[in-house]
Amino acid sequence: PLPALAIVGRPNVGKSTLVNRIIGRREAVVQDKPGVTRDRVSYEAEWAGRRFKVVDTGGWEQDVLGLDASVAAQAEYAIETADAVVFVVDSTVGATDTDEAVVKLLRRSGKPVVLCANKVDGQSGEADATALWSLGLGQPHPVSSLHGRGTGDMLDAVLEAL
Ligand code: GDP
Ligand code: MG
Question: Is 138 annotated as a binding residue?
């Protein structure tokens, strides 16, 4: 079986947009409204000649559990079944309490984590990415999933983690 890369993070940080970038197609459903990810969440991807599975998350965001518990539950399941994880943070917002809760799960899992500082659409956003060193997950990779900026460098790090 192909190695599995899970994409986790809060609603609306750009997980599905990043998945579309990685797979080079528009299959993961992106919405301005948080919480929209359709049921089929696993896609085949390739980078630098290596194939892997990329798993989008977020389909249960409107669950009765409430936001924090729902994000945590999805992240926990995705992390468990993955070989490596991309943790996506909205760098324009910064780290929230929900993000910190996911960081705890990631630490406990012992799985390799690549930190994606998303929505760095231009040079002026780089400082926001740098601030995410505070999460203690190592280097934040500045990325614009919307425009493709920085995704190649991040995927190079992903291949080292997978
Ligand atoms: P998800 O809920 O984490 O899957 O987030 P989505 O991929 O559905 O994206 C939520 C919103 O953020 C959409 O309006 C996207 O267009 C927007 N978005 C995603 N990535 C970026 C980015 O790199 N830059 C900017 N400016 N917006 C982004
Ligand atoms: Mg989504």
Answer: no
